[in-house]
């Protein structure tokens, strides 16, 4: 696999693994002291048991750590343009919000799940803004020529993930 392919794979693993790790390691957030039949759910809980979810979350966390280490090392060596962290960081934060938000939405409570409402009302727009920022920043980085030649003559149209000269 080429350096570019490895970096793209690591970036995909990082951004996709964070919500899975957060969801799996957080566990089901039901109110203590009540049976499942006594609880109210905004959305029903996952059929995956907490033990299996924890294993999935731990595996995702290991993958995220490895991908993050690879990307940090690549940025230090100059193989990854550091400006791409402005794309990856918002996606990681959005993924964390999604993973935690899913556990909040499926939490069993007595009465209304205020956290679910706040997750939808506040978390939804924040996630949308982070993803839109990442898309815009990624497009801007991918279509700009590294030496500043952005005249629109095709010189800046190729997508680049590595820094100039790498």
TrEMBL record:
Q: Supply the alphabetized keyword list.
A: Membrane, Transmembrane, Transmembrane helix
- Write out the transmembrane intervals: 51-72, 84-104, 110-135
User: From which domain of life does this come?
Assistant: Bacteria
Protein name as annotated? Uncharacterized protein
Q: What lineage is on file?
A: Bacteria, Bacillati, Actinomycetota, Actinomycetes, Kitasatosporales
